[in-house]
Amino acid sequence: MTPGSGYPQGQQPGVTTFCGQCGRMVDPTQVFCASCGAPITSAAGTTIGQTPVSPPPPAALPPTAPVQPAGTDNPAQTLTAAPPPPPPSGGWSTSQGTTWQAGMTGMAYPTPTTPATGRPRSRHRVLAVLSAVLLVVTLATSGIWLYRAFAAHQELTAAQYFPRDTLFFAGIDTVQAAVNNHHVTEGDLTKGSGQTESLRQQTGLDWQHDIVPWLSRNLAFAAFPRTAPQGAGAGPNANIGFAYLLQSHDDGLAQAAMKKAADFQTQHGHTVSKTSYGGFTLYSVASTSDFASSSAPGAPGVATVYDPGASSPGVTVTAGKGWALIASDPNAAHAVIDRLNGGSSSLSDNSAFTTITRDLPADRFGTFYVDLQGILRTLSGPAAGVFHSPLLDSYPTAGGYLEWTAAGLRAQMVLKGQRPAGIGDLGGDTTSLAQLVPASAAAYGGSANLGAAVSASQQLATTATGVTTAVGDPFEQLTGTPASSAVFQQPGAVVVLHTSGSNPQSQPGIALLLRAPDSAAADQLLRSAAAKQGWTLKPVTVAGVPATEIDAPSGQPWYQPQPTVQAGNGLPTPKATPAGYAAQVHGTLILSGTQADLAAIINTANGSAPSLAAASRFQQLAQAAPSGASTTVYVDIAATRPANSPAAPSSGGDLTARTNALLVTQVWSASQLAITADLALQG
């Protein structure tokens, strides 16, 4: 609010506000445009619901006496130092409730002085030192003020209303999410997934008309342990409660929306109970499905939600104290309401949560937190002591974030190491083999050390205590050579190609690239695989390079274990057919499904065809990816779309349709396991 005015910050009576995205007239008290979902900016240029941030102005100059230049006696030539403009009335408040004056107490411009005729150097030296001190103090004070203004992340606000032992938390600042260079609005984030239509079908609520008018900036979801409601079934989440919180700037409108959703359930034959708790009016639905649907059963886009028990109250909705609440059941709703009323410890008091979120980037708009050990313990129930997970023992919690990048959108989840995992550092070169891959490849997955990555995954696999469990070595099963062998302790890549045939409906080709230690080691690996799978190896030439044809009696592709084929009982011996092709190019062993795939890789390696490494989208994402990667996976989403699909919009619209490529980077070490997904957007 503008101090003393009674109107929202930047809005004054008689001022008409228009949406900067679609140009329609909007209500200046709303955070989002009801027509297109874009954030509404005030006349002052700030987003409604966003605290204006401005460098604190210095304190006003005190009036000074007239300064008469030396050497003149003419009063008409007397110069008066004009004070600077006064600070804004009341000051702009920061998110901590302080004003700009608090950070600049005692600071003032140096008072102009009359030029002196004696000892000028001494006075100039004193003034220089004084100015330097004032400059340092001003910069330090301003830096502290700006840090306090920006440090508090709005999307973490809801964490104080969820239980301390929350298993999963996700918070989104919708206003910050709409501030990006990709012209993505709040509405764009929901169009592609069909969430708005699903919301209408399940609740009868229209996003633009029933939600946007009261929605403020923060959305949050949490899942936490709970005592299963009486009569609950044995579903997988019977002992886990969940709750959504939607921040509201108009409790009356939010309450009306929750009541409309409850009435919608009643109209569709479901029992809705109305209760009161902690000053809130709760509507709880009890039925064979937690939410009714206005379309026929089984219709596309209608989500199926687990019902904790037809005889017990199910999904509960309410609103108040600046939030709309949708909970899995009344008990889960009570847990949140208790904290809205200031009682009980919350997720904000959880040291693991605060430690993880403290390390996340400052420019994010979304925050995630996962208690991995807690989830396993809660889902296992009475069998919690049976399952053992070395991975979760080493990395018990995880934190993540969403942020906009130059290419598009980044999502990262980091599993924090609590104790040594015993896997060493798996980082290294994951993208150089892309120089051998055709630019038309649909997908590329590179590993810095193929064998070490497989061995680490086996070592940290979840097993059942007291049960004989063998986690198979895929390399041993396929080639007869274990992943720990020196031939696999090298960079490698798996590639999905589109060159298998002219038919667009044909299956994509799969190829393996392995940077072999030497030619002899590569030949020995191929012979070992042939013995293991019953292949017949035949020398051929592909694209002018000596190669090997792999024939298999079963006709299965080279990358699938071959079934045992036995002749006899009057049955003829099956004729071997080509299962793949192999060649060595530039110190790299290549295994592919067809001659066309192998030729495409050879031609690319020899420079006669463009490579994936030179593709602009791949380069943009790979160069911005986290360093020290152990695995890099790239998917050309644009290339996988049907040829007759509509062109992706350059701005706005369906966010999914605008996504051209995906790069997933894994950085795996003893201290953390970080998984980063980068999306490249059109426009």
Describe the model.
With about 675 residues, this protein is an alpha+beta fold. The strands form three sheets. It has a 20-stranded antiparallel β-sheet, with helices on both faces. A hairpin with a 3-residue loop joins strand 23 and strand 24 (about 670-680). It is elongated, with a radius of gyration of 33 Å.
Strand content: 15-25%
Q: Which radius of gyration do the C-alpha atoms yield?
A: 33 Å
Oligomer: single chain
Determine the mean pLDDT.
Answer: 75
For the record, give the distance between the C-alpha atoms at the N and C termini, rounded to a whole number: 36 Å
User: Helix share of residues?
Assistant: 10-25%
Low-pLDDT segments: 1-14, 49-152, 231-236, 289-311, 464-468, 500-504
What's the short version?
The chain contains 17 helices and 24 strands.
Helix and strand layout, with pairings?
Blueprint: E1 17-18, E2 25-26, H1 100-103, H2 120-151, E3 168-173, H3 174-177, H4 188-191, H5 195-203, H6 207-211, E4 215-225, E5 240-248, H7 251-267, E6 271-277, E7 280-286, E8 316-320, E9 323-327, H8 330-340, H9 351-358, E10 366-371, H10 372-380, E11 387-388, H11 390-394, E12 397-404, E13 408-416, E14 443-447, H12 450-459, E15 463-464, H13 474-479, E16 492-497, E17 509-515, H14 519-533, E18 536-542, E19 545-552, E20 577-585, E21 588-592, H15 595-605, H16 616-624, E22 631-636, H17 637-640, E23 659-668, E24 672-681
Antiparallel strand pairs: 1-2, 3-4, 3-10, 4-5, 5-9, 6-7, 7-8, 8-9, 10-12, 11-15, 12-13, 13-24, 14-16, 14-22, 16-17, 17-21, 18-19, 19-20, 20-21, 22-23, 23-24
